Each structure stands twice: as structure tokens, then as C-alpha cells.
Amino acid sequence: MRPAIVILAASTALAACAAGEEDTSAGQTVGQWRIEVNQAAGPGCFAVRNFVNPTSEVQMGINATSTPPSGYLSIFVQGYEGIEPGQSIPATFAVGDREFRGTFTGQQTEGFGGATVPVDSADFIYDLANQDSLTITYGDDRRVIVPLEDADPAIAALRACQEGL
Asked: What's the pTM?
């Protein structure tokens, strides 16, 4: 039996792994996901999916600055100012029948507010390929449901990108 992946409390250094435009290089598009490289994360690869209503994006990526590499999840919403940069709030992540707890650390980037949470293993990110959705609950019963039904090829491309660095 495989041990459960633990969502770690975010630190300022790990929160920097969420990619801003100045740290990334363009990559490929796989379905509705973009695969890019974040130089600040080791370099590490990440997958981005944009949404509308509200205008937002989800990033799931690899932090190659740690040994072994870890992962991270980030959510950014245009104009959202509910969590201040550096502020921490508890979050719960539901994937299939598993639930994880962690801490989001707030970030602000070019008109988008959001937060990042690191995870202790890149396998957590890779294992999302076999899931239909990721549900993130934080703050006062705020909930984000990230559809993953089309993520399998994108996560395969994310893994190939990381292995190619």
C-alpha cells in the first residue's frame, strides 16, 4: 500500500514556484492545457489551464529545486483580492475518494490574485491524470472545482517535459 501524499504548508520560497510571465518559457498546447517551463522552479515544468466566468487559471507544476522534486498547485483569479500576498489560509483538496489538507499562500501577479500550495511529491501532480476533478475548498466555504477529465495527455506531456530538462 502506498503512503498518502501530504500537502505541505507553503513557505515564501516555495510559493515563488508559481509561474509569472517573466520566469517562463513558452511550450506546447495539449488540449485545453499549456505546458511551460518555469526557470524559478529548478527549472520545472508546469501545466496551465485558463477558465472564464470568472477569468482564472490553474497551474499544476513540478518544483525541481528540491530533491526529490516536489509539486505545487496554484489558482489565480482576475481582480481577486481576498488573500493578501504572503497570507496563509487552510485549504482542503479532494481527489477521487482521497482528501488532503494544506495551506495556501497568497500571491498577486499582473491583475490576478491567488494562492499556491506545495505538495511533497511530484507524483501527486502526475497522479491527477487518472482523476475526473480536483475540488479545492478554502476560506469561508469557497470552493473551486478543477475539471481533469481532459488532463491525462497534458499530464503525460508535463512528465515528458520534466524528464527532458
From this structure: 0.81
Domain containing 81 — which CATH number? 2.60.40.1880
Over the stretch 128-144, which tens digit does the pLDDT of each residue have?
998 999 998 887 778 88
Cα angle vertex 125, ends 121, 126, to 5°? 100
Residues 6+ apart with CB under 8 A from 151: 31, 33, 47, 49, 128, 129, 131
In a domain, residue 20? The reply is yes
Sheet with 33-38, strands from edge to edge, namely 24-30, 33-38, 44-51, 56-63, 70-78, 112-119, 98-109, 88-95, 133-138, 142-147
Nearest to 112 by CA among 8, 19, 43: 19
